[in-house]
Amino acid sequence: MDFLSIFSAALGSAIGPIAAIYALAAIGLNMHFGYTGLLNFGQVGFMLVGAYGVAVSVLTFGLPIWAGFLASIACAIVLALLLGIPTLRLRADYLAICTIGVAEVVRLIYRAPVARDLTGGVYGRQGFADGFDDANPFTDGLDLGIVSFRASDLWVMVWAWGLVGLATLVMWLLMHSPWGRVIKGIREDEEAVRSLGKNVFLYKMQSLVLGGVFGALAGALIGLNQQTVTPDQFMPQVTFYLWAMLLLGGAGRTLGPIIGSMAMWFLLTLFDEILRGLDSIDMLPFFGGPEVGAMRHAIVGLVLVLLIIYRPQGIVGDRKEMLVNVK
Amino acid sequence: MSSDPTDAAAPDRPVPDRSAGIEPVPGVAKPDPILRADGIRRSFGGLTAVDVDHLEVQRGTITALIGPNGAGKSTLFNLLTGFDRVDSGQWTYEGRSLQGLAGHQVARRGMVRTFQLTKALTRMTVMDNMLLAAQGQVGEKMLGGLLRLWTTQEAANRKRAIELLERFKLDTKRDEMAGSLSGGQRKLLEMARALMVQPGMVMLDEPMAGVNPALVQSLLGHITALRDDGMTVLFVEHDMDVIMGISDWIVVLAEGKIIAEGCPDDIRSNTQVIDAYLGASHDDPAAATGEDR
């Protein structure tokens, strides 16, 4: 086994385009859950409309990429309003059920035969990223010694990490303002906040829209990164990955989702590479070959369980805040 | 709202008796009502929880709302403050109708409530709890918050919050999490936070519940101080000693209806009230003499 190459692969995936994209979607989830206390189990729905926002605008309507991004944002706002108006008055647990349902409904609508002219149905959309690639200023890849990236990866990384930076700045400014104070108050007790003259519903809606827009931008970047979108890559487990990342990093902290996403991809790749390495020299006792992929998830799951037990606030969470007697 | 009264009156009641001369009958009209309610009804399934024909609350008084368990006190509170929807009825605050308004809109009009189970925002600091209650903050709009247009307003609010915290002896706790306060301190914080809204009327839902006896006196002092500052206080309470001691006017609810109204002395000798609390057929000698009258 080559430990250096294992480490380099893990590091590459921790700072690569996918980690950045997931970090962006997790920032949106952090807005919903970490700060506002909304149990959103349908973040993948926002990613889906974001990805298709670009794909459909460019391919079906022939619009430029930037217009596609605007369409993604508009789709996320519409979805947040459709989801929020009937459900934000519900109690947190009902909201959770509704969000997971809506995300699935959206996926099924986008893959339905009736939508094929627009979305390509189950085959999805390909070849919408040409304009994005043409604008790529990088001609060569980047070699940092231990990790290296292709030129196309670099271009996505610039956008993805750029948007992560922008989203983080926006979140930091908002959460350190009176607006953020109301949002955190809603997380603690929305009745109390209402009794102080704040329109709780409006704030929850703003939170849902903002977090949804971050999710949609992440979805748009997934499409551009893969140069293809299909409905079935937006299954509910994507949302659960995001939750795992958020809790790993620390919910309710500005850097939590970013650190969570990087750590999660680092661990996933690390275990994957180690298991494959062991498998290749026949050191794995009970399993091998195709089971390796499943095993890495089991190990990451175990790490998460240990984390919840021994460090429930996540990597950068505030232990003092966690330990406060809540009721 | 006059605040002259310090020169008049006994030390324990520095405000002139604003409820003097009002006839102690249910639904009686007051000379200067801040809150007027008519035909407030709310039922849950077959049970009529609240059925109040007419209720007026006199401005600048401490009015207590009492009644046996399940009398509908908290429900009436919720209805009046927009935290529950009435089946029928209308009510006005300062002459403007509150009907159909949501809880936050009622609070903005100046009628602020607290809760039976204290709702301190536990994972926020005491100071943030206070600042949250200030009204009309530019920074509470998304764009205003993002563009940091709120810093001068925040400084002014912070100054006012510190003054209030000093008054409630919480200023040393200002940077601690509200969740680390004791039950009594949380009650104080909730009251201070309600004042931060600058209300005209404060509705306290069982302000003494779960507070240790040593702190009760201090809480009572704060409640009378609210009245002395010109605020109207309406509160729900169980402890009879507390009620008789500080109320200017008492409204008794039983089975959703107002069965009696009056100043503490009227209520103490009202047979209907005693019946409602102890049951109609009882052997209490005090009540027996009441029935003879």
UniProtKB/TrEMBL annotation, chain A:
It holds the Pfam family BPD_transp_2. The chain crosses the membrane at residues 6-25, 37-59, 65-85, 154-174, 208-228, 240-271, 292-310. Its main location: membrane. Keywords: Cell membrane, Membrane, Transmembrane, Transmembrane helix. GO terms for cellular component: plasma membrane. The keyword Endoplasmic reticulum does not apply. It comes from the Bacteria. GO terms for molecular function: branched-chain amino acid transmembrane transporter activity. It comes from Murinocardiopsis flavida. It is found in: Cell membrane. This is Amino acid/amide ABC transporter membrane protein 2 (HAAT family). It is a multi-pass membrane protein.
From TrEMBL, chain B:
Transmembrane segments: none annotated. GO terms for molecular function: ATP binding; ATP hydrolysis activity. Keywords: ATP-binding, Nucleotide-binding, Transport. Gene3D superfamilies: P-loop containing nucleotide triphosphate hydrolases (3.40.50.300). One of its GO terms (cellular component) is plasma membrane. Pfam families: ABC_tran, BCA_ABC_TP_C. The keyword ATP-binding applies. Residues 1-33 are annotated as: Disordered. PANTHER family: CONSERVED COMPONENT OF ABC TRANSPORTER FOR NATURAL AMINO ACIDS, CONSERVED COMPONENT OF ABC TRANSPORTER FOR NATURAL AMINO ACIDS-RELATED. This is Amino acid/amide ABC transporter ATP-binding protein 1 (HAAT family). The lineage of its organism: Bacteria, Bacillati, Actinomycetota, Actinomycetes, Streptosporangiales.
